[in-house]
Design goal:
It contains five helices and six strands, in the order αβαββββααβα. By secondary structure, it is α+β, with helices and mostly antiparallel strands. The protein has one domain. α3 packs antiparallel against α4 and α4 crosses α5.
């Protein structure tokens, strides 16, 4: 992030996971979560229509099959709380995780052509997930496609059972 980005109000400056509802996982899972959070914070567009008090922080908590995105201003005032059901993501995430496992296995033994075909399918599913999360949030916040992709990456790391 460059100095000009620090001045932008339409962004997330930090993302936290509520440790009471999203416990730490295996070392690999925690690493994937940390990378996803870093990527999301490093480059994002996140605005709340009608407000100009960003940048925002976001804390993600989980209750049953729902994620809550608690959005706060830099002084800690709650700006917005969004609850998103993961039910519509269930089959997409199942397919995505399956293709990811296939991809990681293929890297060791498959031909470059086979790996590329699997990677195209993995990218297609990731794009579908990004579109779905973008659509689910679109009535409450304004995010761009890359932010949707990074947010889906984070969500998938929270749901992946490593």
């Amino acid at each position: 992030m460059n100095a000009r980005d620090d001045d932008r109000r339409d962004r997330l400056s930090d993302v936290f996971l509520d440790e009471d509802t999203i416990p730490r996982g295996a070392i690999e899972a925690d690493h994937e979560r940390a990378v996803a959070i870093f990527d999301l914070v490093e480059e994002n567009t996140f605005a709340i229509p009608g407000r100009d008090d960003g940048p925002y922080t976001m804390t993600i908590s989980q209750e049953e099959s729902k994620f809550t995105f608690d959005i706060r201003t830099s002084d800690g005032e709650q700006a917005l709380s969004i609850v998103v059901s993961m039910t519509p993501f269930r089959s997409l995430l199942k397919d995505y995780f399956l293709i990811c496992e296939t991809y990681y296995s293929a890297i060791r033994t498959a031909s470059p052509r086979q790996i590329e075909a699997i990677d195209r399918e993995r990218t297609k599913l990731h794009n579908e997930g990004a579109e779905l999360i973008g659509h689910r949030l679109s009535e409450r916040v304004t995010i761009d496609q890359n932010t949707s992709r990074r947010l889906f990456t984070l969500i998938s790391t929270l749901r992946w059972k490593i």
